Each structure stands twice: as structure tokens, then as C-alpha cells.
UniProtKB/TrEMBL annotation:
Gene Ontology biological process terms from the UniProt entry: formaldehyde catabolic process
Name of the molecule in the record: S-formylglutathione hydrolase
Organism: Pseudoalteromonas porphyrae
Pfam families cross-referenced by the UniProt entry: Esterase
Keyword Signal: no
Protein function: Serine hydrolase involved in the detoxification of formaldehyde.
Keywords: Hydrolase, Serine esterase
Reaction it catalyzes: S-formylglutathione + H2O = formate + glutathione + H(+)
SUPFAM superfamilies per UniProt: alpha/beta-Hydrolases
Active site: S147 (charge relay system), D225 (charge relay system), H258 (charge relay system)
Lineage: superkingdom: Bacteria
């Protein structure tokens, strides 16, 4: 059952927020959906799933990215889930890069995190099924995200290439097994077995992707991003893409940092990119 929390008209369409009990994360989850003008049971629209980064909720993207005008024009619905399970019963840590607000879009295997931290199953299976049941959308999907959410979008698309028509990311964590954010999250959520970690690493997954499973991928990265060198490492992803001819386009953007100012500067291009593939 979905509980409607808000409904706001914007750009001729509707921004709505919902909460529901999740069977994947065993707690109440929140998500936001933008429905473009004219979306109805007789005019279903495709969906872009947006995965946000560390510390975000369902609100950051919808309020700060400036995406809704273009999405309205192109006739694309956008679904923005929360970034982790939340609540008093959900184990947490007093840090911005682990626990609530930092679910890393994986299924945790380690106690005490493995009961609730199942964001991979939530995003891949539960949420699309719920959205397709309750809203006027088709089964055509694209996926995008920022930073930790860029990591999530790329991992999910690489592991489920037939489920998404295209994938994009802003400032993604491309190689979490080789950066401090990834090391911390993966060791606590997944334990010491580094074979498990590779299942959630875009570079490792891309290395093992056959050309039948290639899907269009666009990445934008600001060169003034303070996390670029230690955490994000886009050069590791482009090196793999080059080796196997994966259809990745990386746009290095001069002067931009890690913030939503950067995302809002290029979100229209990402929406047009996804639109061109959702249509075909
Ligand atoms: N030190 C920062 C790191 C977190 C951060 O930069 N989060 C990015 C994603 S990795 C973000 O989108 N923050 C929320 C916002 O800008 O609205 C903080 O604690 O705010």
C-alpha cells in the first residue's frame, strides 16, 4: 500500500511523494515521482530512475536539479527513491558516508546491516514493480544518478542490461573497491571477501560484460570536483571501456564541482540522451 505524502503541480505535471512498507528493506521507505503532463492510463510514459548520493533523500534531486521542465517537455516520468533504509530500528553510524543516507545500492550480507540494507533489491525489483502497478508508466526504463547514486546506476545497469535502455551518471564513484568511500562501505556491508565486492564495482562488472550486454552510457564529471582524485576515478572506468569497446562517453566539464549546481547545468543533456534511447 502506498501513502501519498504530497502532490504539487509543476510544469504542467505533478510531483508527488509516497511512503510504503518495503519487503526488501523491512522498513518504511519514501520515494518521489514526477509525472509529466498528459501521462494517463491511455498515454503511459517511460521512467527515468534517479539515484542520489551520500546524505540525500528523495528531495535533493527534485528540488535542486532543475530537471522537471525538460522531463515535462520530453514526456518522461522521474522516480527518485531515498538513499537507504531509515528509522529507529535501522542500524546507523554517526558518519555521513555510511549507514542511513549511505546505502550504496547493494544487498548487505553482514549483521547487523543485512536485515534492512537491501537497496539493490529495492531499486531493481520492488520499486519498479510498485511504480508500474500504481502509475501510468510503461515498462521502459532508464537509470541515472550522482556520486554514490552514479555508482548505483552503473552497477544496476551493468548487472541488468536488458532492463534499462540507457544509463548515465554525474560524478560517479566508478571503482569503489579502490577508494576510501567504497572500502569503508563494502567492508562493513559485505565483509572481507573481496570477490563479493566486485559484484558492486562498475569497473569490475564492465570488464566482464559481453558486447550483447552493452548499453549506452554517458558520464559527466567536473574537473574542479574535490572528490575526483581520491574517490571517483573516472579514468579507471574509461580505461576498461576502451579495452572492450564499451559505448561509454565521458564528458569532463571544466570548472564544475561535485554539487547540484553541476547537475543542473547538464541534466537537460542527460534527459535528452535517455529520451533518444527510451523512444527506440
Ligand atoms: N561532506 C559532504 C559530503 C556529502 C556530499 O557531498 N553529498 C552529495 C552527494 S555525494 C550531495 O548531493 N549532497 C546533498 C546536496 O548537495 O543536496 C556532506 O556531508 O554534506
Amino acid at each position: 500500500m502506498l501513502d501519498n505524502l504530497s502532490a504539487t503541480k509543476v510544469n504542467g505535471g505533478w510531483h508527488k511523494q509516497y511512503s510504503h512498507i518495503s519487503t526488501s528493506t523491512h522498513c518504511q521507505m519514501r520515494f518521489a515521482i514526477f509525472l509529466p503532463p498528459g501521462a494517463s492510463q491511455t498515454n503511459k510514459v517511460p521512467v527515468l530512475y534517479w539515484l542520489s548520493g551520500l546524505t540525500c533523500t528523495d528531495e535533493n534531486f527534485m528540488q535542486k536539479a532543475g530537471a522537471l521542465k525538460k522531463a515535462a517537455e520530453l514526456g518522461i516520468a522521474i522516480v527518485a527513491p531515498d538513499t537507504s533504509p531509515r528509522g529507529d530500528n535501522v542500524p546507523d553510524q554517526d558518519s555521513y558516508d555510511f549507514g542511513q543516507g549511505a546505502g550504496f545500492y547493494l544487498n548487505a550480507t553482514q549483521a547487523p546491516y543485512n536485515t534492512h540494507y537491501n537497496m539493490y533489491d529495492y531499486i531493481v525489483h520492488e520499486l519498479p514493480a510498485l511504480v508500474e502497478q500504481h502509475f501510468p508508466v510503461t515498462t521502459k526504463k532508464a537509470i541515472s544518478g550522482h556520486s554514490m547514486g552514479g555508482h548505483g546506476a552503473m552497477v544496476i545497469a551493468l548487472r541488468n542490461p536488458k532492463s534499462y535502455s540507457s544509463v548515465s551518471a554525474f560524478s560517479p564513484i566508478t571503482n569503489p573497491i579502490n577508494c576510501p568511500w567504497g572500502h569503508k562501505a563494502f567492508s562493513l556491508y559485505l565483509g572481507d571477501d573481496q570477490m563479493m565486492w566486485a559484484n558492486y564495482d562498475s569497473c569490475e562488472l564492465m570488464k566482464n560484460t559481453s558486447s550483447d550486454d552493452f548499453l549506452p552510457m554517458r558520464v559527466d564529471q567536473g574537473d574542479a570536483d574535490s572528490f575526483l582524485i581520491d574517490q571517483l576515478k573516472p579514468e579507471n572506468l574509461t580505461a576498461v571501456a576502451k579495452q572492450i569497446n564499451f559505448p561509454l562517453t565521458l564528458h569532463m566539464q571544466a570548472g564544475y564541482d561535485h554539487s547540484y549546481y553541476f547537475i543542473s547545468s547538464f541534466i537537460d543533456e542527460h534527459l535528452s540522451f535517455h529520451h533518444s534511447h527510451l523512444r527506440s
